[in-house]
Structures are given as structure tokens and as C-alpha cells.
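note to self — DONT lose this again. spent like an hour looking for the file last time. sequence + predicted structure for the chain T wanted, 704 res
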Amino acid sequence: MTHSGAGKYTMKIRFGIPFTNKTFALHEPGKKAHAGVQMSTTEAILDELPVKIRTRGTGHRARQNPPPNVVVNPPPNVVVNPPPNVVVNPPPNIVVQPVPDNNILNNPPLVPPNVVVIPPPNVAVDPPGVAKRNFMTTVDADAWVEIARNLNVGDNKNLRLVSKTAAYVGAAAIQSVKVGPADLADTDANTQTMQHLSVNGLNSVHLTGDATGRIFTAADIARLPPSVTELNISNATLNAGAWQQLAAALPNLRSIKAHGAIVDDAAAHAIANCRNLTSLDLSGNQTIGREGLTSIAGLPKLATLNLSGSRIGYGGVRAIAASTSLTELNLARSQITQFGALALSEMGSLKKLDLAGNNVGDFGAQAIAESQAGASLVTLNLSRNRVGRLGAESIARMPLLSDLNLQGNLVSDHGAQAFSTTPSLVKLNLANNAVGIVGVRELLRSPTITDLNLADNDLGDLGAEAVSGSRTINALDLSNTGLTDLGAGFLGNTTLVTLALARNQINGPAALAELAQIPTLANLNLEQNGVTDAGVAAIADSTSIKGLSLRNNQLGPLSAIELARMPQLETVNLQHNALGDLGAQAIAGGPSLINLMLGNNGIGVAGMQAIAGGSPTLTLVHLPNNVGGDAGAQAIAGKPSLTYVDLQNNGISDVGALAFNASERLRSLNLDHNPNITPAAGQALLQNRQFKNLKLPPEAIAAG
């Protein structure tokens, strides 16, 4: 803070300071306090500047500026990034004393999902205008960035604030906005907002539909700022004129996401006029044909194309194969056969190819591997494609291949052995491929493979013994491979970081203690192994495990009490057990917890209240099929750190559901299977544009 004469102070608010109600009293040494500062982004003044000075009858008319020369640390239940602390040395003749206000502990900063900002350099920006009793402050540009993060462009009452903030923040501060049809209506406020966003370098726009099913038109597209480089129109509807307007209105467009949108050949021709496109997502599209894909393939800069689930068939593949610029292509579940694979084989520019869920067979795999595409590919997904030994042996000779997924094929031992000499292979998925001990022993001769998935192969304890000799593997999946406590004991001598052993029979305390003592182990999955409380006590001795899944075992409250001894735990999945309220209360206080999954555990109000008052770092709670009711929902809704909540089937009605409308950071909310939520409450939640993902029961949206 600097002092510029009687009654005038200039403050800089660093990026990340929570804009919650807090009053500071200013006074000179030996004199009575004479001014106060009110900082707020509460609902009452969202359409005004969120930082104000309010004098206390001193008669001063010079601009007042709030002093931040107090070290401000975020409350324990708020995660702020970048660093929130601000240290400013005050002038020698000024003393700043903060007036205590516990409200800061309960009101973390709003961070809606539909505005993404990048802080510009810390250049002080002085917004114009001085009111008689409410003096605007000189605010650092970073502070305006924090304000911008609180903007909901889709809410018309905030349009004035959007415009002001866009003007004050500086170039490229507001990066992304979500815009509904009403926000593109021909009004002065909308026009002013888009002008400000355009001048300040808006990059990304997400066009969202509304309850009326309104179709976006050419006029709507024309109102978007020409600075936009990324356009998301997934599941939105554009008319023919809107598609035609894209290239003219958005000359800098680099990326289009149109998952689930209706893109026919005419729309594809219009997209092809956007000559600067580098990334295009048309996944889930059932209307585009060969002519449209031919136009798309002609885009000179297109590097990434996603057509998964689009069923383009051989004709579509032939059209796409003409592209000379594509480096990443996703054609999963697109009805590709060996002939389609043959067409793709000459695409020498490809680095990443996803053909999962097609039917290319050995012939198709060989065609790709022994061609220009095979010579350049780094990542290949051929899962569920009926690839056998011959295809595997050809793939194993690909010189640059680093990441290979062959899950659900017919590779067998002979095919698996071939990958021991693949020169660049690091990550290999051979789950469900009839691979046995012989194949595993040969495969482990590879000096390059570090991530290996052998799940759903009949390996038994000898498979674990074979793997235990490897010092290169650090991520291993042996789920559903017939392991017992004996096999787990072999793994205790490894240097694994991630280990998945789900759906086996590993439950003895001694075997689990062996796993817990692996010094490098950070992630352990023991789902569905018949583990009891005694086994969990052995696991809890680990000082390295941060992610633990014990889903669907035989655990009670004692297991949660044991796990509470692990201060390093960040992610815990204990679904489908019998923890009850006592277990929830025990596990909720973990100081490092980020993700907590306790579905199907008989947890009621007391347990949910404990979770709400527990770990300050918690961002995700997954609590479906419990008995929290409205009181439990209200408790969870009041936890300010949460961004994801799942409370399906918890006996919640309107009272509990509406409590989430006040959750400031929440982005994803699932309240399905709570039939007592009415359409009135459902509509209120649907109108809350801060939710990026919202799932409600059919009863709550019956009115349409």
C-alpha cells in the first residue's frame, strides 16, 4: 500500500486473495479510526464493481484505496493457487489493523467453471469513476483476474460486470466463456460485453443450449468475438446459416468440439472453410458422409481428428486417409474392418491411432504395422479387434511404438513373447489375451517396458513370482489373475509404484503386510478380495500409499479407524462395505484427503456432517446409496472445498437439493434416484449455470 496524501491510499491485491466480506480499519498513529474498506463478491453487488470503499462520515472526498498490507493466508478449508499471501510494507505513518471477521472461513472465493482466466503481469489498473460515498479502488490487474474468475457470462445480471472486468483486466486475461442463446440476443448489454471480450483477446467459447431448444443462427455466430480460437458446440444445434458463418466470423478458429452435434455433409463443407483448424472433434456423429469427410481431409493444418462412434465405414476411412496433415486419429467403434485398416496404412504422418472396438483382425493389424503408418506410429490402440499372434508379431516390429493397447484380443503366449524385443515400447496392455506364464517370462526380458497390464489372464501365483524379478516395471495390473496370499508375498520385493490386484483372493494380514512394506508403492487396488478389518490394519502401516481402493470387501468401522492412521492418504475408495456413520467419522478427518468414495456404506446424517467438517483439502465426495437425507445433503452442500458431489439415492427432497445452489465451487452434482425432488427444485438447479455436470432424477425434470 502507498500513501498519496490525506485520505488517499493505493492498494494492490495479489492473485488469489479471497474476495470475502472483511473490514479493515485505518487510522494514523494516535488518531481515531476514520475509514473502512468493504471487499465483497456477494450476490447483492454482482452487477457492480466487487471492491469498494465505504467512508464512515469523515467528509473525505479523495479516492480511498483499501490497504492490503496485512499478511493474508487462506483459511484451512480453501485451496488457493497461485500463492495467496500478500505482504506489503506500509508507510511509516500508517497502522493497519484488521477487524476480526470469521466470515472469511466460511466464504471461499467463487470459481465458476465457465470462465477461465490467466493472470496478466501485475500492472496496476485504475478503473474510472468516483462516487460520492462509494469510492472505487485502484486494483492490481491480478485482482481483476480474480474477479474475472467469478463471472458467469451466461447470467445476464452479470453482463455489466463482465464488460467492466474485460476492460480493466487487460489483454488475454479472460480466456474462456460459456454462452447460451440468450447471451447472443441483440441487446446493447450483450453487444458491449462481446466487444470488450473481443478487444481483450477471448480465446474459447462454449455454446450451450437452453430449455427452449433454440437453434443457433448465423446472427448468433456473427456476434462472437473474432479473437476466438476454440469453439465448443457439443450437443448444440446450429442451422445451415450458422455453419456457413463460422469461417467468416471466426477467422482465427483453431479447434472445434462438436461431440453429439448434428454435422451433415453441408456442415462439414462449411467447417472445411475454416482453413486454420488444427483440431476437430466430431465423435458420436451419425450423419456425416464420405463427401463431407473428403472436405474435412482437405484441411491443410488439421492435426487431430476424432470420429469415434461415428460409424463412417470403409468409404469414410478412404476419404480421411487422403489427409497428409493428420498426426492423431480416433476411429474407435466406427465399423472399421481389415479393408479400412489397409486404407489407413499409407498415412505416414500419423503418430497416434485409436481403432478400439472395430474388427481389423490380423490382416488389418499387419497392414498397419508393415506400412508407412507403422513406421511413424507412437501410440496404437487395437483393443477388441480380434488380433492374434500374427498381428501381434507384426506390431512388435514397429520401431517407434511406445504405447500399445491390445486388450481383449487373442494374442496368447506366442504373441506376447514378441514384445520383449520391441525397441521403444514403454506401456503395454495385454489384458484378457490368454497369456500364460511362458509368455510373461519372455515378455519381462524387455528392457524398456515400465507399465504392464496383464489383468484377466490365468496366471496364478506363479505369474506374480515371475513378475517379481523385474526391476523395470513400476506400474503393474494383475487384477483377476487367480492370485492368492502366496502370490502377493512374491510382490513384496518389487519396486512398484502402482499395483492393481482387484478380484483375486488376497486377504491375509501377513500377505497384505508384505504389500504395505513396498517402499515405493503409492497406489494400491485391492477391490473385491475378501479383505477384513484385520487386513486393513496391516495395510495401514504403509507410509507411502497415497491412493487406496478397498471397494467391495468385508470392512466395518474398525477399518476406517485404522486407515485414519495414514496421514498421507489422498484418494480412498471404500464403496460397498459396512462403515456406517462411525466409519465415516473416522476417515473424514484425514489431513490430506482429496477424493473420498463411500457409496453403499449405510452412512447417515452424522457421517455426512463429519465429512463436511473434515479434511479441508477434500474436493470430491462419492456417496451414492446411503441414507443422508436432506440434513446430510445440506451438510455436504455447506463444505466449501467440494467441486464434485454424488448423492444418488439418498432420500433427498427439495430442501436438500436446493442447498447446492449456494455451493460456490461445485462443478459436478449427481442427485439422480432421489424421486422426491420436484420439477420446481429441478428447474432452479438447472438454471444454475455454475454446474458443468448436473444429473437429476426424471421426476425433477418431468416438466421439461
